[in-house]
Amino acid sequence: MKSFDYLADRLDALAEQHRLRRLVPRNVMGASLLDASCDSLINFGGNDYLGLAANLTTAEIATGSTSSALVCGWTVLHEQLAQRLAVLESTEAAVLFPSGYAACSGTIATLAEPGDLILSDQLNHASLIDGCRLSAAECVVYPHRDFHFVADVLAKQRERFHRVWIVTDGVFSMDGHIAPLVELCDVADRFETHMVVDEAHGTGVLGRSGSGVCEALGVKHRVAIRIGTLSKAVGCQGGFVAGPKLVVDYLINRCRSLIFSTALAPAAVMASMTAIESFERESHRRVRVQRLARELRRRLSLRASCDLEASVPIVPIVLGDDRHTMEVSARLARAGYFVPAIRPPTVPPGTSRLRISLSALHTDAMLDGLIDTLSNLMKRSE
Questions:
Q1: Confidence bin at 29 (pLDDT 50/70/90)
Q2: Which of 177, 194, 201, 220 is an active site residue?
Q3: Mean pLDDT of 117-143
Q4: Which of 206, 300, 305, 323 falls between 20 and 30 A from 213, CA-CA?
């Protein structure tokens, strides 16, 4: 048998750079988690923005769908959830995917064809980046949130391409930034291009009804294709695409990440419907997590580009150095707070950071404790 020793060399290189990753068993319980040493930590690392992930389902629902959606894995529950999501997103139709990653990568790879151009934000999620790479279209990566650059490219090159797709996160997962969707939609209208927005970190959190950043910025009717996840504010598992019925029907027939994957488990589908009912009915969850985000930014003197961005429950503290970031994260853990250290390649080199994720389950006392501990650690490291 041939040796895999070359992989050990690569792992050693990652360790020397303080970028080696390992799976660590943890039990998440609401706003807390138990680490491998059974120490209880307040969890500021998950994406359970509305505190719905810990909800228990009592209905006896099947744990497996048995097949892909096109064979016999698409149940009445799947159909009901898809219809519910279409109503939430104010679109003609929606379809479910086994994960948000599958929804993003599969949708871009399927829709963008030879002769097309994709304009993709520099800090888009890996699932969107991989979708661009898998597609047969030409791709231009534009500087983060630079809609002027997008307009300049289209002014010079639009006539070369059949269709153009502007692809962006709505909320950027490692920065908490809001995409300039109004301006991008203006560019899209001017040059007759399609907008595709990933609402992964906006669904349930932003907008009057909780449908996301497109709703919050008033551009739902201008963004034809919106991709979302059920694994963050919804607190479950899976992904979805909402848009025109023609687009959804085409994905059902051509999208490989949908066609060749086992359909989402019925139990997850049922839990997602229950969670969506909860956040539509209990708007106080959304109000609370937005208030916590604004309070944290204010007390840490962190600036946001707009009022909406100040309400995003993703608050990064960029420290730069990989090793230093890991050390501060470890010290926070020893003090009882789980705040993950995010390093390259997840973020660009030199921008390693603590990524604080807030939840409606966090109490004011929890936030006070985190801020005091973090402030003391920052003073010591100066």
A1: confident
A2: 201
A3: 98
A4: 300
| Active-site entry in 231, 232, 311, 357 | 232
**Catalytic entry in 120, 173, 329, 359:** 173
Chain centroid to CA 106: how far? 16
Single-letter amino acid, residue 56: L
The mean per-residue pLDDT over the stretch 145-168 comes to 98
**DSSP assignment, residue 262?**
B
Decide if 121 contacts 167 (C-beta within 8 A).
Answer: yes
Contact by Cβ (8 Å): 167, 241? no
Is residue 198 over pLDDT 70?
yes
The C-alpha atoms of residue 79 and residue 264 are separated, in whole angstroms, by 12
Look at domain 4-49+313-380 and name its CATH class.
alpha beta
Confirm whether 232 is a catalytic residue. Answer: yes
Q: Provide the residue ranges of all domains of the chain, joining segments of one domain with +.
A: 4-49+313-380, 76-277
pLDDT for 304 equals 85
CATH of 76-277 given 3.30.565.10, 3.40.640.10, 3.30.1360.20, 1.10.1740.10 = 3.40.640.10
How far is it, in rounded angstroms, from Cα 145 to Cα 148?
Answer: 9
194 is known as an active-site residue? no
pLDDT in tens, 278-292: 988 999 999 999 999
Told to judge if 221 belongs to the known catalytic residues of this protein, a careful annotator would answer: no
Query: Per residue in 329-344, pLDDT tens?
Result: 999 999 999 999 999 9
| End-to-end CA gap in the chain | 52
- Alpha carbons 116 and 162: distance in angstroms, whole number: 5
Q: Are 289 and 313 within 8 A, CB to CB?
A: yes
3-class DSSP string for 23-88? CCCCEEECCEEECCCCCEEEECCCCCCCCCCCCCCCCCCCCCCCCEHHHHHCCHHHHHHHHHHHHH
Question: DSSP H helical segments within the chain, as ranges?
Answer: 5-16, 76-89, 100-111, 126-134, 147-157, 181-191, 213-216, 245-254, 256-259, 266-281, 283-299, 307-310, 322-334, 364-381
CA–CA separation, 215 and 26 (whole Å):
35
